[in-house]
Automatic annotation (TrEMBL), chains A, B:
Residue ranges of domain GST N-terminal in the record: 3-85
PROSITE patterns: GST_CTER, GST_NTER
GO MF annotations, alphabetized: transferase activity
GST C-terminal domain mapped to chain residues: 90-214
Keywords noted in UniProt: Transferase
Listed InterPro entries: Glutathione-S-Trfase_C-like, Glutathione-S-Trfase_C_sf, Glutathione_S-Trfase, Glutathione_S-Trfase_N, Gtt2-like_C, Gtt2-like_N, Thioredoxin-like_sf
KW Magnesium (keyword) present: no
UniProt name for this protein: Glutathione S-transferase domain-containing protein
Length: 214, 214
């Protein structure tokens, strides 16, 4: 018998939300240990002993290592709890979920994060999360907004041809896209443009799922 | 019977190398269609019909869609040719390979690419690959070099405690790390520092594998 893993995460962290939604869609229950980012708890010695990179989320296995990085936590959960697959079911669909999830992250989620971190007054030397300090580059704020606008256009076009981001089935690609859309609206004040009918249709459907509240 | 997929790729593309090495480690053979990046063939109508994002590599399935993005091509190949696993074998090792491969990519490979693309005279409006144009940001060149130096430090520390990047077994995390080290040496003139014994020990071992020449 192994005891359960523990998820270290924060309600205010969009990356943590990607894992909470994944867990909610699976219908499983994982004990949670909140990390108070407002109080900079991620830089405490206690948290660095769990994740030396001072990032959330992180999944501490009961009798094994700590798994950090959203994609790695997802993979662990998908392999351990295979019911309600969210990373695809065939070689082809697993590849397509990987491809579309990655595009949502690199073209959408990462630019929102870049725009936020390079603008926030409290993050002058913390333009990138992780163990190293980097100064903000103000030019990146404007470029990030251009990238988010292009992401909205590209995903509106995609979702005019398919029900869900990776095709016929709800998947982790939808989770990252939903987290991106809400993060852009809240943190960059960039909601989905009114004219983007397909993206709005998809958003209404996906954000009505119970997991969206996780 | 399905016919074989075709890999569209370029000998000069470090991302293509990540797929070639994966294929070589598997000991499989995939037909290759070269894309001449020097002649800008990736922007031709013919290639855009294969990958509208004008990126290599891309794996065109014989009776299915085109799979783009290195991680997606890897996942397809791992599922289709499970012998010689390169993405882990247990839930825990699959998660750890995902985590370390991602760190190699986001902390190493991506900064080298960012440093190269923001400096190259021929890429003034092409600072990011993909379907959209973005202007170069000169400040990113210096920051990228700082990030690569930190990557060398972090991975030297990691490889002082393990044989391979993700642990005891050679994996896709080693492929991305090797592609990063060679890309940094060639394109940014940043070889592994002399003092980094553990990273050099690992490099000597991994670059002697036949797949390193792929």
């Amino acid at each position: 018998m192994t005891s359960a893993p523990v998820l270290h995460e924060s309600k205010s962290s969009p990356n943590s939300r990607r894992v909470r939604m994944f867990i909610a869609e699976k219908g499983i229950s994982i004990p949670v240990q909140p990390v108070d980012l407002g109080a900079k708890e991620q830089f405490s010695d206690a948290y660095r002993a769990i994740n030396p990179r001072s990032q959330v989320p992180a999944l501490a296995l009961a009798d094994g290592p700590v798994i950090a990085e959203v994609l790695a936590i997802w993979r662990y959960l998908e392999e351990t709890y295979p019911d309600t697959p969210l990373l695809g079911t065939t070689p082809q669909s697993k590849a397509l979920v990987t491809m579309w999830e990655r595009r949502a992250e690199l073209d959408g989620f990462a630019p929102v994060m870049e725009g936020v971190r390079n603008a926030a007054a409290g993050l002058k030397d913390r333009a990138l999360s992780g163990p190293h300090d980097y100064k903000q580059i103000p030019e990146l704020v404007e470029r990030s907004k251009q990238r988010v606008a292009n992401f909205f256009n590209d995903f509106n076009e995609r979702l005019a041809t398919v029900r869900y981001v990776a095709g016929d089935a709800f998947s982790a690609a939808d989770i990252t896209t939903l987290a991106t859309v809400d993060f852009a609206a809240n943190a960059l004040k960039m909601p989905i443009p009114e004219s983007h009918d397909a993206l709005r249709r998809w958003y209404d459907e996906v954000s009505a799922r119970p997991s969206a509240k996780a």
